[in-house]
Amino acid sequence: MAETPLDRLRIAYADPHGIAQARKAAGARLIGYFLNSVPVELILAAGLDPIRLRGMPADTPQRAGAYMEEYFDGEVRAIFEALLADRYALLDLLVVPRSSEVYLQLYYLIREIPRWEPQARLPETSLFDLLQTPGYPTARYNLGRMKALATQLCEIGGRGVDDAALAEAISAANRLRTALANAAALWRGPSPRLSGSDALCVIGAASVLDPADAIAQINALVAEPPPELVRSGPRLLIKGSPQHDIRFTSLVESCGAVVVAHDHLGGDRTFETLVSEEGNPWEALVHHYQREIPGPRAYPQAREDTRFIALAEAAAVDGVIILHDEWDDTLGWEYPDQKRLLDARGLPVLFLKRQPYFDPPQDEQRRAVTAFIESITGGAA
Amino acid sequence: MSEPQEKMAATLAAQAHQKETQARFRTEVIEGGGDYVIADAVTPHEIFHTLDIPVISLAWYSAVIAAKRLSPYYFELMDQLGYHDGLPRYGSLPFMTTLDGDPERAPYGGLPKPMLILERLRGDFGQKIGEQWSRAFGGAPLVALDSSSVSELRPSWYTRSQHDWEELYETPRLDFQVEQLRGLIAVSETLSHRNLDMAEFRAVMHRVNRAGELVDKAKQIIARTRPAPVALPEQLTNIMAATWSRGSQWAIDHLQAYCDELEMRAEKGVAACPNERVRLLWVNNGLWFNTAFYRAFEEKYGAVFVWSMYSNFFSDGYRKYFGEDDDPLRALAARHISMNEQLHLPGWMSEWIIQQARDYQCDAAVMLVPVGDRMASFGTKLCALALEQAGIPVLTLTASMVDARLWDNDAMIARVEAFLEDRVMT
Domain of life here (chain B) (predicted)? Predict the structure, then answer.
């Protein structure tokens, strides 16, 4: 059977390292980055090749455990293990954003490791010190960091970034966001054609593939969508710690629900807002990353919660599952307010706190999710 | 050697000063309705000292709550309100006193609505607590100082940070921090209807530097004198009282008296533990609800804790010298811009602590790895590795630094005793 666009996106999602190797072999100069807060537009404008990196649950901390405390988010521990295993040595540059404290700490650990493991083949690593408080001084600081990153990209072989190149890169990145927004109808629409797990695959693959390739694959998926899913369970939104892997979403769907939206750093809100293509492109880029992207440091919280509720309503969900990492110290502060917002709309919520990334308690999760689904359906699911 | 039976006069003076400060807070703020500010510990209190506005430090109030063993009550309240039990506990205790709304239970009658709440957004959650706390007070203004991050941990921060801070902390960060401080001053002046007197501000900044020099003098006395002339809990009382009042003449006078008394005790051979055989570092945050633990190994082993990060961070971390033609606001920006990072980032943390081990003639270290406050646990593994590599044995104790419910005193004492017997006294 011929490979469908969805197949190709699933493969790209499942084997990002293989994709990275293939892109590298084809001549790409790879700039790896974490999360949704590194401006890929700058990388594209410099003529370099962005690739978003994520942790893999199979990378259980072995060497990493000697240096990194177990209180880090599980995914960050997996990333550090992969780094020590030379998995990222093919990168021309690794950019670590400051938009999450554990990633900032990861940056300093990476910088410290050569002292302890001089044989480790770590990529050159740069901190992108994005700040997200509202205000003009913060915007000015962020503009300086953007220019510094552009200079560094130029120093490692990229082109100098001028306004025209940046404007074109913004347009290209927006085309990818738009393609994803169009594809979102396949999982968020009234009759979903993609599962929540496949939604994560599509979103994840979009930042692993070359952007032009990703746009082509996603547009092809939208043009030739799979048939409607044969599922009748409640429509759920998953929120909380980043869910870059599909394990939990698959578990929820195996219990009879349809996951129609994700509100976390691997989910729907990562492409909800386009960068303005009007005016000064640098200022547009600063505004976007300072104020328009989701993240644990995004502030004020009420603004973020408004966007969360808007997503839940747009996806017409019947309930919400909030899942926090085992050592979460941040998202839990939001939960009481978010529960009140959901209660006010009659939307039930299941809160799974302190969930381990490695070897999660899937039997317990399954029991909790099944009971939650039954509470929504009255046992009819 | 003679063992002191009573506290140092300086310690009594520091405690009296704390009581006077609390009495003033009660009179002027709680009863009089005067302005005051709730501020993260690592924020520019100097601005409010200059404006003569009382400051309640989050770390200080948390420590008071823990010392009064009220933390279990507030943690249970936290659970009831839906805040999960893995959330950071140290900074959340004062917030919980507001949500509880019972002034009879909270230390010093609880905190009334402040003029503003000041946070430094080092971790990811300070703004979340600050926003909700502001709302719980019925809309107290929240000023969130964002926390830029240094791109390179240049070596020997503790020797460079006093004069060479422009390069150490990086110019764009300092520019941004100065802009934030100007905003904070504007907000504070508007809300308080006061004016920041530049001459007085400059004097405050000089006084902090002078106080830091005296803390360094106290360090030199304690470091060179065996047996140590003061116990660690008394060090903390004296240094922290000066830290919270750091821009005042009182802080200078107090630290001078403290140094004089230390000199006198050193000359007379007055010792915290006359039987001192082993000198220990207490690494990482303090054990505020059980400071007696620091002295639990003196009688049996002659093992004395002579240093914690509070012993002399005031001298190494706070002093920022500037010229008469320079803007003292930039020096203030430099003071707090990487303060936590110097204590907790791998590299910076370990190089300073190894230097302190050498200066204080320490034989071993006991390191607290806090649970429920992971920010304070970051960097501890690499620090322990570095200390061991430098020939300093390390015992790590994993425990909450504020939740007495989670502390098994007998088990912890047994672990330190085993460490002393197996790795230090051999």
Answer: Bacteria
C-alpha to C-alpha distances, B240 to A190, B63, B271, nearest whole angstrom: 61, 11, 21
How close, in Å, is residue A139 to chain B by CA atoms?
10
Structure tokens at B126: 């300070």
The per-residue pLDDT for range B334-386, each reduced to its tens digit, is 999 999 899 999 899 999 999 999 999 999 999 999 888 899 899 999 999 99
Do residue B385 and residue A112 have CB atoms under 8 angstroms apart?
A: no
Nearest CA in chain A to B149: A129
- Which pair of structure tokens corresponds to residue B159? 């020797």
Instruction: Give CA–CA dist A221/A6, Å, rounded.
Output: 6
Asked if the C-beta of B155 comes within 8 angstroms of chain A's C-beta atoms, the answer is no
Q: How far apart (Å, rounded) are the C-alpha atoms in residues A177 and A270?
A: 8
Q: Which residues from chain A sit within 8 angstroms of residue B120, using beta carbons?
A: none
Show which of residues 358-377 on chain B sit within 8 Å of chain A, judged by CB atoms.
369, 373-375, 377
CB atoms within 10 A of CB B104: 6
Contacts of A100 in chain B (CB under 8 A): 124
Is the reported ipTM for this assembly greater than 0.90? yes
Mutate to test the interface with B, among A70, A116, A129, A322 (most CBs of B within 10 A): A129
Nearest to B37 by CA among B16, B63, B18, B58: B58
State how far the Cα of B57 lies from the Cα of B48, in Å rounded to an integer.
Answer: 12
Q: Give B223's Cβ-side CA count (13 Å radius).
A: 16
- CB contact B400 to A (< 8 Å): no
Which among B161, B246, B257 has a CA at the least distance from the CA of B204? B246
CB A253 within 8 A of CB A259: yes
Closest alpha carbon to B314 in B219, B221, B378, B233: B219
A141 contacts B84? CB cut-off 8 A: no
Angle at B210 between CA B205 and CA B213, to 5 degrees: 130
CB contact under 8 A, A98 and B380: no
CB B83 to CB A144 under 8 A? Answer: no
CA B170/CA B67 separation, integer angstroms: 38
Q: What is the pTM of this model?
A: 0.96
| pLDDT tens per residue across span A111-161 | 999 999 999 999 999 999 999 999 999 999 999 999 999 999 999 999 999
The CA R_g of chain A, rounded to the nearest whole Å, is 20
The residue of B145, B382, B388, B401 whose CB has the most chain A CBs within 10 angstroms, and thus the best one to mutate to test that interface, is: B382
Q: What is the 3-state secondary structure (H, E, C) of A328-345?
A: CCCHHHCHHHHHHHHHHC
> How many residue pairs bridge chain A and chain B with CB atoms within 8 Å of each other?
133
Residues contacting residue B67 through CB under 8 Å, at least 6 positions apart: B288, B289, B291
CA–CA distance, A64 with A77 (Å, rounded to integer): 7
- How many Å lie between the alpha carbon of B351 and the closest alpha carbon of chain A? 12
CB B116 within 8 A of CB B187: yes
Residues from chain B that touch A148, judged by Cβ atoms under 8 A, are 172
